[in-house]
Each structure stands twice: as C-alpha cells, then as structure tokens.
Amino acid sequence: MYEEQTLEEEEIFSGRVVKLSKLTVKLPNGRTSTREVIVHPGAVAVLAEPEPDRVILVKQFRKACETELWEIPAGKLEPNEDPDAAAKRELSEETGFSAERMERLFTFYTSPGFANEKLHVYYASELKEGEIHLDEDEFVETRLFNRQEIDRMLQMGGIEDAKTLVALLWWCGRNR
C-alpha cells in the first residue's frame, strides 16, 4: 500500500470556505516531498426533478471560472452539518422547492490531487414549491429544463460543471 506520512504542516491561508496548507510528506520510498492541499468542509448537490423528464438547474456567475454556469443546486456543508439536512437546505434556498423523496446517489472527491472536498450528490423528487431564499451574496437564475434541452446542452458542451455532468448523465441513463 502506498501512503504518504505527513511530517509537517504549514497553514498558508484560512478563509471562510477553504484552508490552504503546505505539507511536508514522507513518500513510500523514504524520500520527502511537499504537497499543497486545500481543506474544504464538503458540499452537497441536488438533482431535482419536479415533474417527469424535467429538472431544475440554476445559473450563476462563478468568479474562479469568470463565467456563468448552469448547475444543479449545491452548497457547502456548515460545521458538523449532516449532508442529508444540507441537501434539503440547499434545494430550498436556491429553488424554493422541498422534496418528499431525497436519495443520495454518489459521494466523491471533486479534485483529489489537491483538495479534500467530498461532494454528496442527491436525487430529489415529489417536490413541493415554496419561496427561494438565497444568501445575500448569491445571485442565481432558476429554470426547468426538459430532456431534449438537457440532451442538447450535454451534446453542445453547455454543461461545464463536473457535479452537474455526473448527475445529469446518471439522470439521462436511468430514464432511457
């Protein structure tokens, strides 16, 4: 088994979403190296299907990418927050919907080469409409898309967000 033992950790930055650390590690061959690691609290994302063959996407500007992206509703976990509760919270905040049925589909690391963010992806159905209540620094456009629109977006490269690609490909595959 190949493991790297952390010998030293230097915190480079600590913000409200992430922490950046520089680690000195002992490699399996006995040598040492450095790793820059982003520590993230984890996140949830929800593929919501309010009616058969229609899903909800939100469009928001992502500064890191300098573009607007269509995504499934998502957000980071609060300290000690249960992912199931966070998924319900994020769905409600970004879309106004609440779900009678919520099923966890996948849990995966988003970028394990440099970050420890673990993302929990859910499927929500039997939705009830309510009011959107975004955070004060969130600006999103919410829209329903049918299967043909999603297929076209996937074929044309209109979905560039990884969590959304994973969820939509699952959705398209299960409904064929």
TrEMBL record:
Cofactors (names): Mg(2+)
Domain Nudix hydrolase residue range list: 38-167
InterPro entries: Nudix_hydrolase, NUDIX_hydrolase-like_dom_sf, NUDIX_hydrolase_CS, NUDIX_hydrolase_dom
PROSITE patterns: NUDIX, NUDIX_BOX
Swiss-Prot/TrEMBL keywords: Hydrolase
Gene Ontology terms, MF aspect: hydrolase activity
Sequence similarity: Belongs to the Nudix hydrolase family.
Name of the molecule in the record: NUDIX hydrolase
Lineage: Bacteria, Bacillati, Bacillota, Bacilli, Bacillales
